[in-house]
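Problem 3 from the worked examples.
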Amino acid sequence: MTCNLTLPVACVARATSNAAMGVGPQFGFEYSKYNGWPEIKESLMTGRIQAAYMLAPLVMDLADKKIPVKIVSLGHRSGAVIMVRTDSPHQRFKDLAGKRIAIPSRFAVDFLFLRKMLAREGMTPKDIQIVEMAPPDMPAALYAKAVDAYCTGEPFGAAAQRAGYARVLRMTRDEWRNYICCVLTVREELIAENRPMVQDLVNYVLGAGQWLDQKQDNRNKAVTIAAGRKFFNQDPNIIRFVMENPVDRVTYGDLRMIRSEFEELMQLSIEAGTIKGPVAYEKYMDESFTKAARATVIPL
């Protein structure tokens, strides 16, 4: 997902720096692709992976259940959309009353975006039919009229929009400017055993974010990197569409971690029933790395 675009950039930039210095990958980052949140969650819980881009409410829930994980950085801002068919009569959000709407998961922040839009119109989730579905399946489901709309992160909105059969009804860029969903999460033993490694990763992610938002040429380079088999393994034209329509559909330059934003996210998650109750900020958050961070200059 394009929410995670800072990670392929960070991985390649680190490998490039290592090669230029003639050193081995002692601080290399290895990218692993997973097909769904349950698999990532399981791998992080069992320690098969030590760091991952995770849904923020999921991390809060894991930390509350005493799984030793901490959020150390954001990965992006914005990047979620509500899509409808190009030929559908739906022009206002209220027009979705009674319709079937797909979401990735009830833990997904996309679902919180949908709930926020419902509340703004004086509606509740009971006023629509919610279907949980893997984001890659959503464009085809909309095309086949199996659903009337879907709410998800990019590039799965752009894929249908670029193909011509879907249009954006609402996007977080316009409705929830400081929206965050994917956050860089690490296991606490990695922090205890190798703080420099975690700091280096955060520095590269923040550097990648600033680099991505500097100029379109950098975004074009990122598209080529991320589309490859080693990373997203997706059509570069779809990722490029996300980067250009409009250019701030997803942003990466402002990765500050702001307590009030996470607390709003938690309150929305509690109201949605995805988190049972309040989780102390310090339980799931380690701000020390972003506070000490020096965004790495990306040599790409």
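Problem 4, a separate protein:
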Amino acid sequence: MSSIAIERLALGPMQNFVYLLVPKARDRLVVVDPAWEPDVILARAEALGRTVTDVILTHHHPDHRNGVEALLARHPLRIHVQKSELPWLKAQGWRTDLVLHEPGDRVELGQGESVRLIHTPGHTPGSQCIDCGGRLLTGDTLFIDGCGRCDLPGGDPDTMFNSLFRTLSAFPSDTLVLPGHDYAPVPEASLGDQRKTNPYLQFHDAAAFRQFRMRPRG
């Protein structure tokens, strides 16, 4: 497992999880999906004796990035996004300078440490998970006993099926899933357990998954 420490903050009215990646290099600190309460994020960074240097966005939805501008007002940042998210961010009026990534890119964090960006479209075209070496930050791609919606603009259930059943199938069962929202009784679970209990991971073809994922919701 990677030596990068991960801290989790539960913030905001939509039960978001914001993660801080704390590498050995003391001049780096990464915030994943900064939203809702930037003062809390900055206070935790200060308590760690770090300055936020990088932001990684799992996708472009405002509830995962509405704290970015407040962080930028305090410090210059490298903001890492999957390149397919750029048109959606521009359409929402976002003009912040970004570091655009290809699938599989690594974000280098100094002293030989890095995280890998896994392109997992379906919730949005540029959704991505973050591979932290035995821990997978899944944003709105995979929740504990759930998965992200596919009925919002840019969502696609067939693409989500591929992300869940092909891309994420490469990860071993003991990989720890750290989702983007606190939607379950537990904040994290192993991918192996999720393959047994998550109703969205019980399908063998895209058509059946699509029908279930896109069913009318009460």
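Solution to problem 4. The helical segments are 38-47, 68-72, 86-91, 157-167, 191-197, 206-213. The longest strand covers residues 5-11.
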